[in-house]
């Protein structure tokens, strides 16, 4: 099997090299496309796992400048760097560059998710999701989210001397998603869903070679299982709506999306769009939120002054509540310093390392040609760690975000930008603030491992961040 695969790659490589010779290289950015299909993909993924991806890209920038060509995930690619590049990516019209993820992501999630849609379709699907995810709608879910967080801490933290934070935060964020987004309670079904989901996301960033022994192949199979489970959920919610068993059309995300109608009285979203975007929300809510909360816990453990400031803010709110009383939307609005800590965490350790677009037509950028059909890749963490923008960028300083106007436009893009701003950022804010409130007011903790982390492709702290904990007061 290995020999056949090697011969196949050799023939494909020869074909692509000959094909490239027929293409004019006039004005193409500097750099090399490397070995066909593989290109620099394995080198980038290896650097991410070793947490040296930023250095790997910095070497490219030193060698070629802020624009260079390479090959990633089987496609010829142009890497862009800097504030100007961020603005270009987030403000360009769909007639110049468009959403298109690497083939591995596209095949695992699908072609009708917000990551792939453009123009009117992107606006239509995004607007549908914003009906559920906008602040006005999320206010009514604060109590339910807090209930899930309290239950989680009682089950997994109370009475423990040591816990491993990242896997527990993933359990928490998945249970919140199951409850609020899918109306699915804990049990065998949600357990099967999370197991399939974890296998699915393992191959999101991988070389798209669909052979039985590859990570990509395993993820494709898991994606099909998750897809079938989500389809069944959609079917059940549709029946509930039809039989008027749903008490509230906004009781969960799937019910909300199914209840939407366009001007002609037809479904606003197709079943395929609902299914694939629900899977996208699962990825965004499961990994990004759990990683953010985990790294906040990590930074607070190694930054005593920041911990003290967060504790003071949260204790003041706790003292204003009666015993057992839930937090309110107004309480969350008071957690300004805590959210600055979250923003600084996202600046230094963004859950999403980079992303891609596709050139819809030949584009002149920075004096070079980006050919039609080429992939455009950029890494947000590169701008967010630029010492010309953020003095002492490795220093953890939440007060960088005290005055939002002090951060230049398109230099902090952890939530995207422009029309590509993440629709779930407010959901993540609420989830994060409530979780940190209960952790700092009920527990103290101490790290049990070093401060290192790797990316695979999301950041993972050493050993999943084991911490020694001590309870301060009852929940």
UniProtKB/TrEMBL annotation:
GO biological process: sterol metabolic process
Main subcellular localisation: membrane
Membrane topology classification: Single-pass membrane protein
One cellular component (GO) term of this entry: membrane
Transmembrane segments: 278-301
Top-level taxon of origin: Eukaryota
Cofactor field: heme
Gene Ontology MF annotations: heme binding; iron ion binding; monooxygenase activity; oxidoreductase activity, acting on paired donors, with incorporation or reduction of molecular oxygen
Signal peptide bounds: 1-24
Subcellular location: Membrane
Identification of the protein by name: Cytochrome P450
Binding-site residues, heme: 422
Recorded family membership: Belongs to the cytochrome P450 family.
CDD domains xref list: CYP90-like
Keywords: Heme, Iron, Membrane, Metal-binding, Monooxygenase, Oxidoreductase, Signal, Transmembrane, Transmembrane helix
Record bears the keyword Transmembrane: yes
